[in-house]
UniProtKB/TrEMBL annotation:
This is CBS domain-containing protein. The lineage of its organism: Eukaryota, Viridiplantae, Streptophyta, Embryophyta, Tracheophyta. Keywords: CBS domain, Repeat. Pfam families: CBS (PF00571). It comes from Solanum stoloniferum. The keyword Repeat applies.
Length: 444
């Protein structure tokens, strides 16, 4: 078992290397400019990076319920939060004090898995045993992905999930009355529902954090270099990096991919930034992902297939395309699942609901066709500065690149790609600055 875990960790670290090596091959920045930038970031201390809003990092206890966790994320308008180990409250070692980082997507994925279990119970004609009456399949059941058999998910039984479905959950409790607003704010009505329903109100964060897109807790010190942070956010696929005071277990800052890209916007006017960002994407080797590597969903496919693709490929969004040339017509993200939870009319025929139907219904519900489904795009001829401005101002994690003469999707640029564009990893940097313990955590 231990040997298998070591092999899995080694495989993950190798995938990070493969990604970054691919980036370096496709980059077109002069090597001397890359070296200058990398050296510059290596000499900028993490302490110089702006603090989180309010100056205090929000944390939650591992014994917090899923419902309360969503409430904290919603009210704080954040997408992820560090998780504390209640058994180590007095420990001065951050390795014992923190279990990981809970991402909003982890909760969504857990709900999806629970929905599969509920769907299995219903499709197997065991709805009555699960406590589900005819015609009472509610918000959770609406997310069913067509499971072929029951599965134990985070310790939940079919009966437990069925009990959550019974009565229609969101539908019968009016949670769908203000779906657009709720979805924009991470589902305020959603958390009101799951605070009252099983299995949400009794399931603890600790039961899902290591199973659903678990983000390892890999902190850097205040006197570490920003190069360390940028490498963790790009090469090593972390969405956020906790910052601690050396010798202290308490968090001083929490740096996200989005915050770094917003920080780049503030670099306008500096020679090094203007020199790079003024170039068209194609001259910089962007997008790093080729057209045949882009994972997309057709507008005539089922919306549940779109969410399956996101889950199976560990990605947060997909371009919606039509026709043989993959003309982009929309965008769906894992956060759009909230619309299924909050709008009863969306799941009245969820097993037959196409991506196009889903987008049209969301646009109608929001009274704004551009709000929920319109993709954020750019052309190959766009310059990097425009892309960075768009990512920062639209608060999105990816922008789709289309061909110059039509709207065919030819690539995607993520926050990770933008950060990778400015740096490379010096020889032995990881071993010298992170060591074995970080390798072990990053491999988890």
């Amino acid at each position: 078992m231990a040997q298998a875990k070591i092999m899995e960790n080694t495989s993950k670290l190798a995938s990070y290397d493969a990604y970054f090596e691919m980036v370096q091959r496709r980059k077109k920045l002069p090597r001397n400019l890359q070296e200058t930038l990398t050296d510059a970031f290596a000499n900028i201390p993490v302490s110089s990076f702006p603090q989180v809003p309010g100056g205090k990092v929000i944390e939650i206890d591992a014994e917090t319920s899923i419902g309360d966790a969503v409430k904290i994320l919603s009210e704080s308008n954040i997408l992820s939060v560090p998780v504390k180990n209640p058994a180590a409250q007095n420990s001065l070692d951050w390795r014992e004090r923190y279990l990981g980082v809970l991402d909003y997507s982890a909760i969504v994925l857990w709900v999806l898995e629970g929905a599969e279990t509920a769907a299995a119970a219903i499709s197997a004609s065991s709805a009555a045993a699960a406590g589900v009456g005819a015609g009472t399949v509610g918000a959770l059941g609406a997310l069913a992905l067509g499971a072929t058999g029951p599965a134990a998910v985070a310790g939940l039984t079919v009966a437990a999930v069925g009990a959550a479905v019974a009565g229609g959950v969101a539908a019968d409790r009016g949670a769908g009355k203000d779906a657009p607003t709720a979805a924009d704010k991470l589902g305020e009505d959603f958390y009101k529902v799951i605070l009252q329903e099983e299995p949400f109100k009794s399931t603890k964060v600790s039961s899902i954090i290591k199973s659903y897109r678990w983000a390892p807790f890999v902190p850097v010190a205040m006197d570490s270099s920003m190069l360390s942070v940028l490498l963790l956010l790009s090469k090593y696929r972390l969405r956020n990096v906790p910052v601690i005071e050396r010798g202290s277990p308490y968090l001083k800052n929490f740096i996200t991919q989005s915050a770094v890209v917003r920080g780049l916007v503030g670099c306008k006017g500096r020679d090094w930034f203007d020199c790079i960002s003024a170039h068209p994407l194609s001259e910089l080797g962007l997008p790093y992902m080729s057209a045949d590597e882009v994972i997309s969903v057709r507008d005539d496919e089922l919306i549940l297939e779109a969410f399956k693709k996101m889950r199976d490929n560990n990605i947060g969004g997909l371009p919606v395309v039509e026709g043989p040339k993959k003309k982009i017509v929309g965008n769906v993200s894992i956060r759009d699942i909230r619309f299924l939870l909050l709008k009863p009319e969306l799941f009245s025929n969820f097993r037959q609901l196409t991506v196009a139907g889903f987008m049209n219904t969301v646009a109608s519900a929001t009274h704004d066709a551009t709000k929920a489904a319109t993709p954020i795009t750019c052309k190959l001829g766009s310059n990097l500065c425009t892309v960075i401005d768009t990512l920062a101002s639209k608060l999105v994690h990816r922008i789709y690149v289309t061909a110059e003469d039509d709207d065919e999707v030819v690539g995607v640029i993520t926050l990770r790609d933008v950060i990778s564009c400015f740096i490379y990893e010096p020889p032995n940097f990881f071993d010298n600055h992170f060591g074995f313990s970080a390798q072990e955590m990053l491999g988890n």
